[in-house]
Amino acid sequence: QVQLVESGGGVVQPGGSLRLSCAASGFTFSSYGMHWVRQAPGKGLEWVTFIRFDGSNKYYADSVKGRVTISRDNSKNTVYLQMNSLRTEDTAVYYCAKDPHEYGDYYYFDYWGQGTLVTVSS
Amino acid sequence: EIVLTQSPGTLSLSPGERATLSCRASQNVASSYLAWYQQKPGQAPRLLIYGASSRATGIPDRFSGSGSGTDFTLTISRLEPEDFAVYYCQQYGRSPITFGQGTRLEIK
């Protein structure tokens, strides 16, 4: 079955950096685009970023553009989120999520990880 | 940016009743690219509906989606105890993709 397991969350000071990882299994990882979606405590969902199946294209929400970088290693079935210049408003649970169609960019999410909490606080 | 407004904010119903959740878009949602998710406390969201009316894999047929253009509906025909949760709509027809603010379905 499809599994997505995030790691790397924690407490970081404003202006700091963090790298999140998402290990995937149960599907052909190299054939699917991957997303990160976040949820601030007690709030709704916000799409953050997407990377195509082959890493050829990446897209970012305006709220994080220039501060975060998505990447993937298809040999390790893992997608990453490098977060720099963190702000208090970046505090959220970060979910990795799978795009549903092979080789496609559909921008909805058929499987989600359990999430990893990032807290930006001094 | 397409703004999605969900109503009501909270819906109080009893098991066995029918639930009707609304999602209204500020602009036309191209090709009915609208999805619905269910989220329970402490859990990740789960995809219920995509393409406005197609059920995702493993979703019971008591869940149905309808609508087009700017008005969409998620209907749960007969509520089971496990259906009480928060529901989000999401449009993926135009960048940036956006979510509604959620409808909380609670036990009356």
- Number of helical runs of chain A? 0
The average pLDDT score of chain A comes to 97
Number of strands of chain A: 11
Order of helices and strands of chain A: EEEEEEEEEEE
Largest interface: A-B, 19 and 22 residues
SS field, number of helical segments of chain B: 0
What is the CA-based Rg of chain A, rounded?
Answer: 13 Å
Structural class of chain A: mainly beta
Portion in strands of chain A = over 45%
How would the global form of chain A be characterised? Answer: globular
> Segments of chain A where pLDDT lies below 50 for 5+ residues?
none
Unreliable stretches covering 5 or more consecutive residues of chain B: none
SS-derived structural category of chain B: mainly beta
Shape of chain B: globular
Describe the structure.
The complex is a heterodimer of chains A (122) and B (108). Chain A has 122 residues and is mainly beta. Chain A contains no helices and eleven strands. In chain A, the strands form two sheets. In chain A, strands 2, 4, 5, 6, 9, 10 and 11 form a seven-stranded mixed sheet that branches. Chain A has a four-stranded antiparallel sheet with strand order 1-3-8-7, with no helix packed on it. In chain A, strand 4 and strand 5 form a beta hairpin. The mean pLDDT of chain B is 96.
Describe the structure concisely.
Chain A is mainly beta. Chain A contains no helices and 11 strands. In chain A, a hairpin with a 5-residue loop joins β4 and β5 (45-51).
Strand and helix map with partners:
The complex is a heterodimer of chains A (122) and B (108).
Chain A lengths: L2 E5 L2 E3 L5 E8 L8 E6 L5 E7 L6 E3 L7 E6 L4 E6 L8 E7 L12 E2 L3 E5 L2
Parallel strand pairs in A: 2-11
Antiparallel strand pairs in A: 1-3, 3-8, 4-5, 4-9, 5-6, 7-8, 9-10, 9-11
Chain B lengths: L3 E4 L2 E4 L5 E7 L8 E6 L6 E5 L3 E2 L7 E6 L2 E6 L9 E6 L6 E2 L3 E5 L1
Parallel strand pairs in B: 2-11
Antiparallel strand pairs in B: 1-3, 3-8, 4-5, 4-9, 5-6, 7-8, 9-10, 9-11
